[in-house]
């Protein structure tokens, strides 16, 4: 008899008390810690994962019925539930990278291992699986385990008073040294001794190794273009400047707070200028993308530009809410797309111009949008507004008015774009030229499904 896979069947756990899953003998993680740990759901089964890049979660391939097809799978991390759009399984072990439908900037990804795991090493295991007393916990649990032995693809780990359970599959095995946390493996199988509803007396947990294939993980994650709201991209020369977007302007975010060029240099602050330099552990090379469109230093200053001309150097200044020159997109092109594949566009920059749906075009500034301080803005600095609160009212562009409720929009995470009045942005048809209107929100209505590509 083999140790069992740790995926948790949600419906079975709730309806029939069939063995489900989490770490027994561990403790609840304190709020605000291990925020990179993701709760993964796929075809009614629950697993765990870890955010390793803004748009990628590493988990176990056994969490998915078809390791190459995500189906309706989702990952919840950083307070946001994202659809999993692509799976990249590793052929020789129980491991898969899951691409999210949009980047998560509210939490920092976990760093990948920098050295191989050693026998006798202590690892912290984290998961959302069953505990000794709870079938489907909503809190993350962690516990320390010791590495007993290893193969080229797995680790055998044990703990005197803890084990992993169903639902912990794909959860991270973490090395914690000197205040640095690294991902070295993911949860795979366990005898589940001590898990709620289990009578097994054998102990032991198997982890899928990651520590020696970190280059493979990085190779699967495409680099990013860092694009300003004005449509220009950041060049990766000795001084970081604005330039026209082209292939080769590639940046990586390895999860350690740095932003790196393709040849391994790091973006750093020199005075107020942004430069590229050999990577160090210094605070001048630490950056955050907090989710509001800004690109911030460790000290809290924002990357900005003095003008929209190519060649303009990037500088750091105090952050100003709604300042378009401080708005940046990672990889995304800033388009606002409906589920029908068309993009929101403007026929002109004139006040009262309606928003219409047209074919998405490369680098069209009239198709570039940002949700800033609750206002939906185009690059022309006008804001989307409503003529009235009546369903069917069309969206038009007028001068931005802070505090005007008809200009207040939210993207609550279900794909809708909602006005302050509770109505959703909608389309009358899927034909190009269709105007964007508001309508009563209907769950699952494809004409109310939007994606703001950041």
From TrEMBL:
Domain Peptidase S1 per the UniProt entry, residue ranges: 23-222
Keyword Chaperone annotated: no
Keyword Signal: yes
GO biological process, one term: proteolysis
InterPro entries in UniProt: Peptidase_S1, Peptidase_S1_PA, Peptidase_S1_PA_chymotrypsin, Peptidase_S1A, Ricin_B-like_lectins, Ricin_B_lectin, Trypsin_dom
Chain coiled-coil ranges: none
A molecular function GO annotation: serine-type endopeptidase activity
Taxonomy, superkingdom: Bacteria
Pfam family, one: Ricin_B_lectin
PROSITE patterns: RICIN_B_LECTIN (PS50231), TRYPSIN_DOM (PS50240)
Record-linked SUPFAM superfamilies: Ricin B-like lectins, Trypsin-like serine proteases
Signal peptide bounds: 1-22
Entry keywords, A to Z: Disulfide bond, Signal
Family to which this protein belongs: Belongs to the peptidase S1 family.
Full protein name: Ricin-type beta-trefoil lectin domain protein
Species this chain originates from: Amycolatopsis iheyensis
Taxonomic path: Bacteria, Bacillati, Actinomycetota, Actinomycetes, Pseudonocardiales
């Amino acid at each position: 008899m083999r140790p069992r896979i740790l995926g948790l069947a949600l419906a079975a756990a709730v309806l029939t008390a069939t063995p489900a899953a989490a770490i027994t003998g561990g403790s609840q993680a304190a709020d605000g810690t291990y925020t990179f740990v993701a709760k993964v759901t796929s075809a009614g089964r629950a697993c765990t994962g870890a955010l390793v890049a803004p748009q990628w979660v590493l988990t176990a391939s056994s969490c998915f019925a078809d390791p190459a097809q995500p189906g309706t799978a989702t990952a919840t991390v950083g307070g946001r539930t994202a659809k999993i759009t692509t799976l990249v399984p590793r052929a020789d072990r129980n491991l898969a990278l899951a691409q999210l439908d949009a980047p998560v900037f509210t939490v920092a990804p976990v760093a990948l291992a920098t050295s191989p795991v050693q026998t006798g090493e202590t690892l912290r295991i984290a998961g959302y699986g069953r505990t000794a007393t709870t079938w489907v916990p909503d809190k993350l649990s962690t516990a320390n385990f010791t590495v007993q032995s290893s193969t080229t693809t797995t680790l055998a780990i044990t703990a005197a008073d803890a084990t992993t359970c169903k639902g912990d599959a794909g959860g991270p095995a973490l090395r914690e040294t000197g205040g640095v946390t690294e991902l070295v493996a993911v949860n795979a199988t366990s005898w589940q001794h001590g898990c709620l509803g289990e009578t097994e007396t054998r102990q032991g947990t198997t982890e899928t190794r990651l520590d020696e294939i970190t280059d493979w993980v990085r190779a699967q994650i495409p680099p990013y273009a860092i694009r300003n709201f004005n449509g220009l991209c950041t060049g990766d020369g000795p001084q970081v400047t604005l330039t026209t977007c082209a292939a080769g302007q590639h940046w990586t975010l390895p999860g350690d707070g740095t932003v790196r060029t393709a040849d391994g240099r790091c973006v750093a602050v020199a005075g107020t200028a942004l430069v590229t330099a050999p990577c160090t552990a210094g605070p001048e090379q630490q950056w955050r993308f907090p989710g509001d469109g800004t690109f911030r230093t460790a000290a809290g200053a924002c990357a900005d530009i003095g003008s929209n001309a190519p060649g303009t150097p990037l500088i750091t200044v105090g952050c100003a809410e709604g300042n378009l020159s401080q708005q940046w997109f990672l990889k995304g092109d800033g388009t606002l797309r409906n589920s029908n594949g068309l993009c929101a566009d403007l026929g002109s920059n004139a006040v009262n111009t309606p928003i219409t749906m047209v074919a998405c075009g490369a680098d069209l500034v009239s198709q570039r949008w940002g949700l800033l301080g609750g206002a939906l803005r185009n690059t022309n600095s006008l804001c989307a507004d409503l003529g009235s609160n009546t369903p069917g009212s069309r969206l038009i562009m007028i001068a931005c008015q802070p505090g005007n409720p008809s200009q207040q929009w939210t993207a609550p995470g279900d794909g809708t774009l909602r006005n302050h009045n509770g109505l959703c942005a909608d389309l009358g048809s899927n034909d190009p030229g269709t105007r964007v209107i508001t309508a009563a929100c209907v769950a699952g209505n494809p004409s109310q499904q939007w994606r703001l590509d950041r």
